[in-house]
Amino acid sequence: MTETVRQVQDWLRAHEDDLLRDTVAMLRIPSLEDEAAPGAPFGIENRRALDLALSLATDFGFRTKDVDGYGGWAEIGEGSAMVMSMGHLDVVPVGPGWKHEPFGAEIDEGYIYARGATDDKGPTMAAFYAARAIKECVPNLPARLRLFFGLNEESGFKCIEHYNKTEEMPTLGVAPDSGWPLYHAEKGIANVVIAVPLGTGSEFDLLEANGGQRPNIVIDSCTARVRIGAEAKKHVTEKLADSWDKNLSFSVEGDILTVNCEGKAAHGAMPFWGDSAATRLFRFLMEISPIPTQSYYEDLFALTHVAGLGLGIHGCDEPSGDLTSNLGIMQTEGNTLMLTVNIRRPVTWESALLRSKLDAHCQKSKHDWKIASFEASAPLYFPLDHILVKTICEVYQEETGDMTPPGTMGGGTYARAVPNCVSIGTSWEGDGPAHQTDERYKVEHLFRASRIYAHMFLRLLDEAAKIG
Asked: Tens of pLDDT along the chain (468 residues)?
């Protein structure tokens, strides 16, 4: 470790109270996407988060720019080469079951509890303070260091897309939004809407089903209504008497069965960490369905399989492992059930391959399934000998002694949207989990991340200067 790194990290240790104070202030802003307003394309609360970040940066002597309300950046240093750190200030919806106020930023037994604590406000503030420490301690940098504050990472990447249209690309970049030391491969992501007909005139007709918050969150609650025909009444009543799922409730009024299901939210990239209320719903309807309509509900139940088996898309590759699939939203539109599925495909798969598999499955469907929309983003993959990968691994190993190799993930970060970038770690055992209830970040881990980021930034600035 060089003397410069020691000085920067000593400054961070001396200013931990400041980092904690400003992180708490950021976490207390409920920066959920909302209706657009002037200068706030993603809502007023997201705008408030951006204003706080840019105000702090200005106060600390950074050059700043508001990128049309889509995001903003703060920068130090001079020269043609530029290292960029990309964090996001928007968060996913809260959902039920929190023991701590989701935007209270309460500190309990050494952890900060808040939505966005680990994904991604805490790491973003740690990176910001790492840059501030470098500014205070290193007067002559070999390249520029820029921090981007995004506002639409969780629901569309429109912020970084807008940045790409108007702003400069980095020589090297990182997104503090994954696992240590870094993820050198991110699976391709697709959001697919499948249209399924409702009300086909059977003896057990699904009239509506609704649930879910975002495509990339496991559904934690949902409801459905089914019309029970006269011939199916006896069969369904007997099955209801034997139902077993304690996280499911139902009622029957006349010929209408109403079902309410509860589950457990999780990040859509790891749907097996959650407990899908949609899976619970369709399994229940499949089990109580009369035989003539059973295949309809079997297919819906199979669609919720986390490996994509029910869509004919399961598969894997060597760099990134298995495909994952998450039914994130169910929405009734007229006589159609719209099912939004969030798919994380292996890095060696082209989007065209995924689309062809989905098309083939829908064409074989006995129930007239159709693909209503298909949006896909490319995967990210850097070989292990790339300068970004090698440099970040060297710093992390020096800081921690941890020899964990670079990983791969189904999650998508800004790194996939900007050239020359990878995602880096944010948290350790006991933190998180992202997108779940009672998200938390250990205070000491916040401080530790800031010191590691500072070391990484210093090394990457040197490497960027060599590239020019």
From this structure: 899 999 999 999 999 999 999 999 999 999 999 999 999 999 999 999 999 999 999 999 999 999 999 999 999 999 999 999 999 999 999 988 999 999 999 999 999 999 999 999 999 999 999 999 999 999 999 999 999 999 999 988 999 999 999 999 999 999 999 999 999 999 999 999 999 999 888 999 999 999 999 999 999 999 999 999 999 999 999 999 988 888 999 999 999 999 999 999 998 999 999 999 999 999 999 999 999 999 999 999 999 999 999 999 999 998 889 999 999 999 999 999 999 999 999 999 999 999 999 999 999 999 999 999 999 988 999 999 999 999 999 999 999 999 999 998 887 899 999 999 999 999 999 998 888 899 999 999 999 999 999 999 999 999 999 998
Q: ∠ at Cα 138 (24, 389), nearest 5°?
A: 75
Max Cα distance, the chain (Å): 82
Return the residue matching tokens 């300068």: 387
Q: What is d(CA 176, CA 434) in angstroms, rounded to the nearest whole number? A: 13
Q: Contact at 8 Å (CB) between 154 and 93?
A: no
C-alpha distances (whole Å) from 8 to each of 1, 59, 211 are 11, 19, 48
CA triple 401-405-406, angle to 5 deg = 120
146 SS3 class: strand
From CA 420, how far away is CA 190, in angstroms rounded? 22
Task: Give the number of C-alpha atoms closer than 13 A to the C-alpha of residue 175, restricted to the C-beta side.
Answer: 28
Nearest CA-CA partner of 113 in 125, 101, 126: 101
Please provide residue 95's backbone torsions phi and psi, each rounded to the nearest 5 degrees: 80, 170
What's the Rg (C-alpha) of the chain? 24
Contacting residues for 305 by C-beta, under 8 A, at least 6 apart: 311, 314, 325
**At 213, which amino acid appears?**
Q
What H or E segment, with its residue span, contains residue 278?
helix 277-288
Query: Nearest-CA neighbor of 90 among 160, 170, 164, 191?
Result: 160
pTM of the shown model: 0.77
Contacts of 238 (CB under 8 A, 6+ apart): none
Residues identified as active-site: 90, 153
